[in-house]
Amino acid sequence: PPVDPARIELFADASLAGCERALLSAEGGALFDELRGGIRPFNLSLATGFDDLFIDHLRLRPMH
Q1: Are the C-beta atoms of 50 and 59 separated by less than 8 Å?
Q2: Model's pTM, two decimal places?
Q3: 53 and 45 in contact (C-beta within 8 Å)?
Q4: E strand or H helix at 33, and its extent?
């Protein structure tokens, strides 16, 4: 979505840190059980145009 780049902050390994905290917390098991009940797998390779959109948004820079 169109978002002002100034509002975006990048955090290295934030998703991994969040998973670790959830796994190590006393409530982690219940949280994952709840999440598992609402998750539905979706194969993105079957979505028309996904590959092109993915490549277009990688923001790769030319190598010099």
Answers
A1: no
A2: 0.41
A3: no
A4: helix 28-38
Hunting for tokens 């996904």 — which residue is that? 50
Name the burial class of residue 28, with classes exposed (0-12), middle (13-18) and buried (19+) by CB atoms within 10 angstroms of its CB. Answer: middle
Measured between alpha carbons, how far is 28 from 18 in angstroms, rounded to an integer? 11
64 residues of the chain, pLDDT tens digit each: 788 989 988 888 888 988 898 889 998 888 888 888 888 898 998 999 999 988 888 877 777 7
Rama region for 49: left / alpha / beta (φ>0; ψ in -120 to 50; rest): left
CA distance 57 to 6: 18
**Paired tokens of 1:** 């979505």
